[in-house]
Amino acid sequence: MIPLSTFDAAEYLDNDEVMAEYLTAAMKDPNPDVFLAALSDVARARGIAQLAKDTGLGRESLYKTLAPGAKPRFETIVKITRALGLPLAVQRAGMARRPHGSHTSLPRKNGAHRMNTEIICMPPLSVTLVWNGERLNNISLDFAPEGAAPTPEEELSPRGRAFARGLADYLEGRAADFGLDLDRDIPLDDVSDFSREVLRTLFRSVRFGHTTSYGELAAMSGRPHAARAVGRAMASNRWPLFIPCHRVLSASGGLTGFTGAGLPMKRLLLGIEGASYRDEQSGRHS
């Protein structure tokens, strides 16, 4: 079996220009955790020990500040970015417009593929795609900012445009493949054997407008007593929407956790598909 290593963006952030591009792309995402994750990658690339010394914050404090879900003070973020030599700056919209305005990339390292990130805003959704060469490394879902305009097609890569067309179909209540092929485009070889089987089963068996439970999905995957493990596989699913973990409910048909934008996003996606579920907050079926 070929040993696989986990992708770490910090390994590719080897100069100031690339770091600045990476943070700029992350700031375009409405989910603040995306920027915190990017800032954490940059901090690790520079060296946490040195950054702790330069900011006076301490290593443990830095890790907590940059953890997903953290709510750091703005002055702390300013202190960190200045210590990194990448201070935040305000620009009038359009001044730094690129040919692919919502598209950035990380350089190759030791023959590795180029990492490309692009953000598709299509209200009510904002979708971040991270490509590793020709394969989709991960998808991040969030709500589009209020009043946001859809991302123009010309700002997207050909693969991004295909995804956007599928997203438009989906938002109109139609099943879509988003221009992706599970075996060709999704690096499931990066996940455990169990998660791979569960994700494939979910993708192939639970179609648009339908739902299943964690226990039912475990049984369909040949592991009838592994409902909890299925829940962990759903929580770590890197390709939400395409591999539809939002269609997995509790045994009673109720909503459970959803990575990223949480239960409001899960409600939205199930509502678009016309799928029924039990809303635990109201006790009613939707």
Please describe the structure with a list of short key phrases separated by commas or semicolons.
286 residues, alpha+beta, Arc Repressor Mutant, subunit A, 3 domains, 4-stranded antiparallel sheet, two-stranded parallel sheet, 11 helices, 8 strands, 38% helix
Structural description of this entry:
- By secondary structure, this protein is of the alpha+beta class.
- The protein has three domains: 9-83, no CATH class; 103-183, no CATH class; 188-285, Arc Repressor Mutant, subunit A (Orthogonal Bundle).
- The protein is built from eleven helices and eight strands.
- The protein has helices spanning 16-27, 32-46, 48-55, 59-65, 74-83, 158-171, 182-185, 193-205, 214-220, 227-235, 263-273; strands at residues 103-106, 115-122, 125-132, 135-143, 212-213, 248-249, 278-279, 284-285.
- The strands form three sheets. The chain has a four-stranded antiparallel sheet, sandwiched between helices.
- Strand 7 (278-279) and strand 8 (284-285) form a beta hairpin.
- Helix 9 (214-220) packs across helix 10 (227-235).
- The longest helix is centred in the N-terminal third of the chain and has 15 residues, at 32-46.
- The protein starts with 15 loop residues before the first helix and ends with a strand.
- Mean pLDDT is 85; it is low at 94-101.
SSE map:
Blueprint: H1 16-27, H2 32-46, H3 48-55, H4 59-65, H5 74-83, E1 103-106, E2 115-122, E3 125-132, E4 135-143, H6 158-171, H7 182-185, H8 193-205, E5 212-213, H9 214-220, H10 227-235, E6 248-249, H11 263-273, E7 278-279, E8 284-285
Parallel strand pairs: 5-6
Antiparallel strand pairs: 1-2, 2-3, 3-4, 7-8
